[in-house]
């Protein structure tokens, strides 16, 4: 579970990251990363978008929980001051845990490199 300080909850923050962030995509996810200029020392924050095209409610919630667990693992090694939005693509419902883990970690690393 992500702490409240590590979650993006406002719609404006989601829109800002998706519109202005550096994107990195794989077959299963699109990761958008933006460096927060106002708060460079605050913790990195994550948000997740899992649309109905991914599957039914059970599938979407499973994917969301998996993405949250991956983000929790990334936080230990991540730099501070970034906002990250992970959008699950329809193919994510067919991907296993190792595939999702690899895709998110790789996309996140590329996004941070671009946003820095």
UniProtKB/TrEMBL annotation:
Transmembrane segments: none annotated. The keyword Signal does not apply. It catalyses: Endonucleolytic cleavage of RNA, removing 5'-extranucleotides from tRNA precursor. Keywords: Endonuclease, Hydrolase, Nuclease, RNA-binding, tRNA processing. Its EC number is 3.1.26.5. It is an enzyme of class 3 (hydrolase). InterPro entries: Ribosomal_Su5_D2-typ_SF (IPR020568), Ribsml_uS5_D2-typ_fold_subgr (IPR014721), RNase_P (IPR000100), RNase_P_CS (IPR020539). Pfam families: Ribonuclease_P (PF00825). PROSITE patterns: RIBONUCLEASE_P. SUPFAM superfamilies: Ribosomal protein S5 domain 2-like. One of its GO terms (molecular function) is ribonuclease P activity. Belongs to the RnpA family. RNaseP catalyzes the removal of the 5'-leader sequence from pre-tRNA to produce the mature 5'-terminus. It can also cleave other RNA substrates such as 4.5S RNA. The protein component plays an auxiliary but essential role in vivo by binding to the 5'-leader sequence and broadening the substrate specificity of the ribozyme. Consists of a catalytic RNA component (M1 or rnpB) and a protein subunit. This is Ribonuclease P protein component. It comes from Curtobacterium citreum.
